[in-house]
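PROTOCOL LOG
Step 1. Enter all chains and additional molecules of the complex.
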Amino acid sequence: MNIFRLTGDLSHLAAIIILLLKIWKTRSCAGISGKSQILFALVFTTRYLDLLTSFISLYNTTMKVIYIGCAYATVYLIYMKFKATYDGNHDSFRMEFLVVPVGGLACLVNHDFSFLEILWTFSIYLESVAILPQLFMISKTGEAETITTHYLFFLGLYRALYLFNWIWRFYFEGFFDMIAIVAGMVQTILYCDFFYLYVTKGQGISL
Amino acid sequence: NQDEVGHDEL
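Step 2. Run joint prediction.
Step 3. Record the structure below.
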């Protein structure tokens, strides 16, 4: 564990909590892409199946349970509890255009052709593009609530911090995982446009 | 390279 990975995980946790609280407190998921949240739930489910097979640390297990719990709670709030406030017309990105190519790539490019490893690779690739429906929705509506921009900021920051974590681990531990690094770079690059607007605008954003 | 069994990152 290093400072970049710890702050990265905490930034990720902050993003997840911010979104969940925003929907819960305002009792509305206006401006939120339910499809991105479904993809994130899928990312956590396919990545954290190792909860059933291996124990790494209390921190690791606790965070995985929290991530999965919050992801499904968010999907539940969007599609069940506050379904009336879900803006389905603007949340029109075709998820299959992401899941199918990512699934194929995970079968072609991976560290080991085993069930859990393929699923892990799928989740890494999927996470790098899972935010696209949300960014697409904001570009269609032309605006985003301030709280949503904070959610996106911390979500984008988390993987950027992981890039520093991988530099740290390569330098100090000789560890590197090309699949995670390349996907992490793609994921962070997708936020660059948003980061620029977030920093220059400060308040509500129009992509 | 990715040598230990499984992945230790979230």
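Step 4. Note key features.
DSSP finds eight helices and no strands in chain A.
The first helix of chain A runs from residue 3 to 26.
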